[in-house]
Amino acid sequence: xxxxxxxxxxxxxxxxxxxxxxxxxxxxxxxxxxxxxxxxxxxxxxxxxxxxxxxxxxxxxxxxxxxxxxxx
Length: 72
Known about the structure:
The chain starts with a helix and ends with a helix. By secondary structure, the chain is an all-alpha fold. The model has no long low-confidence stretch (mean pLDDT about 90). It has three helices and no strands.
């Protein structure tokens, strides 16, 4: 950690009335959550276009396709 980072962390901890360790844990939790979200998005993007509906206009007629699929 640079001197500037340490000083910024100290000031932020004082301002928020929390320990520096608590702020660092929060930052790590956020970083890990972002990584998890990025992995889920990447997996979802891999699946896009991987399946075929047998209809060439499903992307245009998606509302009708959903209504038909979920109609009672």
